[in-house]
């Protein structure tokens, strides 16, 4: 008995819908992703067996390098702009519009306010060197009353207020998807001096900022 031969035909799959989906996914991730800025001062944080998620937005990052210098950063430019205006008024310093725009391009604050006009006239390489050798002053201001806050405390209060002002200016839809205040995150190098870390904590407590997160590297107990 003769066998029936089934005619083979080529299989053709239309890939157009798949490519459309890939483009849509790529566009979604590009628009929703939070890009990490390149920090001037980087630290190696200590290990911890406790794992908790650090917020990706609305943060006030305090960095302590191995030499005990303190740096500040935030992820919102508008917050930094409002805080800068307040700090310039507090310290009696004037910047041009171009200098303010240049300052807002920086990823971290690490220079005393009085030195900002000179700092902003230098090229990027010299600015990085100055920042790594300076840091935010955490001691009492020498040119004013003994009980006045340090520049570190003034910056923290200015940044918190700047974010609060921005938040209050938003509509209800934006407020629903945004945090109502900046969350303080302390990221200290594993070899940073303990006395500096303690001083940062004390200065935060002096301005009634007692809630903060300590940023560490997660390490499993069996490691």
Tag the structure with descriptive keywords.
two-stranded parallel ribbon; alpha/beta; 4-stranded mixed sheet; 223 residues
Summed up, the helix count is 8
* Strand line-up in the sheet with most strands: 3-2-4-5
- H/E series: HEEEHHHHHHEHEE
Largest sheet data: 4 strands, mixed
- Low-confidence sequence ranges: none
Whole-number average pLDDT? 81
Query: Based on helices, strands and strand pairing, what is the structural class?
Result: alpha/beta
Overall 3D form: elongated
Can you give the helix content as a percent range?
Answer: 40-55%
Strand content: 5-15%
Distance between the termini: 71 Å
E-strand count:
6
| Rg of Cα set | 25 Å
Question: Describe it for me?
Answer:
The protein is of the alpha/beta class and 223 residues long. The model has no long low-confidence stretch (mean pLDDT 81). 20% of the residues are buried. It starts with 15 loop residues before the first helix and ends in a 5-residue tail after the last strand. The chain is built from eight helices and six strands, in the order H-E-E-E-H-H-H-H-H-H-E-H-E-E. It is elongated, with a radius of gyration of 25 Å.
Brief rundown of the structure:
This protein is α/β, with parallel strands linked by helices and 223 residues long. The protein has helices at 16-32, 77-91, 97-104, 116-119, 124-133, 151-169, 172-177, 194-206; strands spanning 47-48, 59-64, 70-74, 183-188, 213-214, 217-218.
């Amino acid at each position: 008995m003769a066998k029936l031969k089934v005619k083979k035909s080529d299989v053709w799959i239309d890939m157009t819908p798949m490519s459309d989906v890939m483009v849509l996914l790529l566009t979604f991730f590009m628009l929703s992703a939070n890009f990490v800025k390149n920090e001037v001062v980087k630290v190696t944080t200590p290990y911890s067996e406790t794992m908790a998620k650090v917020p990706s937005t609305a943060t006030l990052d305090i960095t302590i390098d191995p030499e005990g210098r303190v740096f500040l950063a935030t992820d919102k430019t508008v917050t930094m702009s409002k805080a800068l205006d307040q700090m310039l008024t507090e310290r009696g310093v004037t910047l041009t519009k171009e200098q303010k725009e240049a300052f807002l391009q920086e990823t971290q604050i690490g220079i005393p306010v009085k030195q900002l006009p000179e700092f902003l006239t230098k090229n990027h390489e010299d600015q990085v060197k100055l920042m790594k050798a300076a840091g935010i002053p955490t001691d009492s201001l020498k040119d004013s009353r003994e009980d006045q806050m340090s520049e570190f405390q003034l910056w923290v209060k200015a940044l918190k207020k700047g974010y609060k002002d921005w938040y209050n200016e938003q509509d209800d839809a934006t407020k629903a998807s945004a945090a109502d205040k900046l969350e303080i995150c302390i990221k200290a190098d594993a070899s940073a001096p303990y006395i500096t870390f303690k001083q940062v904590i004390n200065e935060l407590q002096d301005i009634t900022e007692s809630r903060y997160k300590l940023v560490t590297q997660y390490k499993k107990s069996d490691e």
